[in-house]
Specification:
Blueprint (H helix, E strand, L loop, with lengths): L2 H27 L8 E5 L4 H16 L5 E8 L9 H9 L3 E5 L2 H8 L7 H18 L4 E3 L4 H15 L8 E3 L6 E3 L7 H11 L12 H19 L3 H9 L26 H8 L8
Parallel strand pairs: 1-2, 1-4, 2-3, 4-6
Antiparallel strand pairs: 5-6
Helix pairs in contact: 1-7, 2-7, 6-8
C-alpha cells in the first residue's frame, strides 16, 4: 500500500468512526432502538440512506441488543428510475429487502396542476405506502436518513415560510399513533456523509424529482447554511444545539407557557429582588 493509500485509509477510518459514534449517541439519547425491534430502513438510493444502512448493519453486529433490519425502497415509478440498482446491491449484501411498487408519480401529476407544488401530496402518498407496509409486516421502527443539516433546513423553512418553530425530531410518533419514526443520522454532518459515500462508492441513484417551489426553497436554505458554515465555523453546531435547549418561558407561545397566569412572589428573598434591580443577577447565572 502506497503512502497516499495509507493516508486515505486512515482518513476513512476516522470518518467512519465519527459517523458511527454520532449515530450511536443519537440512538442512545432518544432510545431509538430496543430489544427485539424490527427496523425498516427506508432506502432511496441516495447517499444518506446508503450511509444509514451501512452504519446500522455494523451496529447490528456489535450492539448489546438484538434487532432485525429490513431494507425497503418505494418505487414511485418516476421516469428514469433504475429498478435494478437497489435489488442488486442489497442482494450482494445479503440484506433482507422489499421493493414497494406504487405509482404515486402518475397520481401526483394527475391531481396537481402544472407549475404547482407537488411536495405535500407526494409526501402524504409516500408516507401512506411506507406506513401501510410497516403495519402489515410487524415493523416496530421506521428509519429515515435525514441528517443534521436536513433538520436545520426544515427548522428555517418552517420559520421563514410557515411561521412556526418546528423541525424534524430525531424520533417521532406518527399521527395515527401506529408507527415510530427514527432518524439515526440526526447528529451527522452532511459533509461527513458525502465523504463517506464517496469512499464507499455506493451506487447512487441521481435524484431529479419535481423541482417544485418547496424544493427550490430547500435549496436556498442549503446554500444559506453552507455559506454560514464557511464564514462562521461552528454556527451549525450552535443552531442544532439550540433545538435541544428550548426555554418556553423566553419565547412567546401562550400554548407552551402560561404567561397570563404569571404572578409576583411576595415571599421571594430581598436579596434576589435587590440583585435583579441592580443587574447583579447576571453574576449568579
Amino acid at each position: 500500500m502506497s503512502e497516499q493509500e495509507q493516508k486515505s485509509r486512515t482518513q476513512f477510518n476516522k470518518l467512519q468512526k465519527r459517523l458511527r459514534r454520532c449515530v450511536g449517541e443519537a440512538i442512545a439519547d432518544y432510545n431509538m432502538l430496543e430489544q427485539g425491534d424490527k427496523v425498516m430502513v427506508c432506502l432511496s438510493g441516495g447517499k444518506d440512506s446508503y450511509t444509514m444502512l451501512d452504519i446500522l448493519l455494523n451496529l447490528q453486529k456489535t450492539a448489546p441488543i438484538d434487532f432485525e433490519i429490513i431494507a425497503v425502497n418505494l418505487d414511485q415509478k418516476q421516469p428514469g428510475f433504475p429498478p435494478h440498482v437497489l435489488p442488486e446491491y442489497l442482494t450482494a449484501l445479503r440484506v433482507p429487502f422489499h421493493i414497494i411498487e406504487h405509482d404515486t408519480y402518475s397520481i401526483v401529476k394527475r391531481i396537481i396542476p402544472e407549475g404547482k407544488t407537488t411536495c405535500s401530496l407526494c409526501s402524504r402518498l409516500r408516507r401512506g405506502s411506507l406506513y401501510g407496509f410497516a403495519r402489515e409486516h410487524g415493523v416496530s421502527k421506521i428509519a429515515l436518513g435525514h441528517h443534521r443539516e436536513d433538520i436545520i433546513e426544515t427548522f428555517f423553512l418552517n420559520m421563514f415560510y410557515a411561521g412556526k418553530l418546528k423541525a424534524m425530531p430525531p424520533k417521532l410518533l406518527s399521527d395515527d399513533k401506529q408507527n415510530i419514526i427514527i432518524r439515526p443520522l440526526a447528529y451527522c454532518r452532511e459533509k461527513d456523509i458525502n465523504r463517506f459515500a464517496a469512499f464507499k462508492k455506493f451506487p447512487i441513484i441521481p435524484c431529479n424529482l419535481c423541482g417544485s417551489q418547496e424544493n427550490l426553497q430547500r435549496v436556498a436554505m442549503k446554500q444559506m447554511l453552507g455559506n454560514w458554515d464557511k464564514q462562521f465555523p461552528g454556527r451549525l453546531e450552535t443552531i442544532f444545539a439550540s433545538l435541544q435547549n428550548i426555554a418556553p418561558s423566553q419565547m412567546a407561545d401562550t400554548g407552551l407557557f402560561d404567561f397570563a397566569g404569571l404572578q409576583r412572589d411576595p415571599d421571594s428573598s430581598l436579596r434576589h429582588i435587590a440583585s435583579e434591580e441592580y443587574g447583579l443577577d447576571i453574576l449568579e447565572r
